[in-house]
Design a protein that fits this description.
There is one protein chain. The chain has helices at residues 42-53, 73-85, 133-149, 164-173, 204-215, and strands spanning 4-5, 11-12, 30-31, 35-39, 90-96, 102-112, 117-125, 154-160, 176-187, 190-200. The protein is an alpha+beta fold. It has a single domain, classed as Aminopeptidase. Strands 3-4-5-6-7-8-10-9 form an eight-stranded mixed beta sheet, with helices on both faces. A hairpin with a 2-residue loop joins strand 9 and strand 10 (190-200). Helix 1 (42-53) packs across helix 2. It is globular.
């Protein structure tokens, strides 16, 4: 890449011609083949989510989230009310296409329209969503919305550095690891070093093509086993 210089001979970044602030994400439905995302609703989704989250006997899946798992229907409704009212993070319920039930949530957050930067986070997958085509597709749908419809330049994934499954998921989805912010936050009474990952608009076409190839029904055998891994399709 050719480095530009200003009138003082100092190196400066590439020009972003015609740039303007990006729209903020809206409460819209995002439809896919295996799932759809809906603006989170206590009335529509809370009972389904409570059943899905309680399929495991403990709350180890919530260790690295900012909150603990709601342990009663009433607690879940209170939690969902907070999600429902939030503008940033903007939460979506993940709905299985096959049976129409809510099986998890995810959010677009730390939204910076002026710079075209947005993060995906607050991801709470239930056991029945984990390691499914719907789980992968839900992440693809949010990325596609951010890049293709809203025109963002940078899509971020951040997690506790000790959260090995989250860091592995970021790599699988095509994020580039950028580094660690030490002592970044305090949550649940403990310190967190935060691992930063991102996908840029320039990288998105290759990432999108890999997602779309992986999600094709032809990529799975009669038992639902993938023929090619997502990472293989980016190479």
């Amino acid at each position: 890449m050719t480095v530009r210089h200003n009138v003082y001979g100092q190196p400066i970044g590439p020009a972003v011609d015609g740039w303007s602030a990006r729209p903020r994400p809206s409460r819209i439905e995002l439809a896919g083949r295996y799932c759809r995302l809906e603006p989170v609703s206590r009335e529509r989704h809370a009972d389904d989510l409570f059943r899905a989250y309680m399929e495991v006997p403990d709350n180890r899946d919530w260790t690295y989230l900012s909150v603990e798992r709601p342990e009663t229907v009433e607690e879940l409704h209170t939690y969902m009310r907070k999600l429902e009212l939030s503008e940033d993070p903007l939460h979506f319920a993940i709905i299985e296409a096959l049976n129409g039930t809510a099986v998890g949530t995810a959010a677009l957050m730390r939204i910076e329209p002026a710079h075209g930067v947005i993060e995906v986070g607050a991801i709470a997958f239930s056991p029945r969503l984990k390691k499914t085509r719907a789980a992968t597709e839900s992440m693809y749908l949010l990325m596609r919305y951010a890049f293709d419809e809203l025109g963002y330049r940078r899509y971020e994934w951040k997690c506790d550095t000790l959260n090995a499954p989250s860091r592995a998921a970021a790599a699988r989805y095509g994020f580039t690891f950028e580094g660690i912010f030490r002592n970044a936050i305090v949550y649940k009474g403990r310190s967190r070093d935060t691992a930063w990952h991102s996908i840029t608009a320039a990288e998105w076409p290759a990432v999108r093509a890999a997602f779309e190839a992986w999600l094709e029904p032809a990529n799975f055998d009669e038992h639902g086993v993938q023929k090619r891994r997502l990472g293989e399709l980016r190479t």
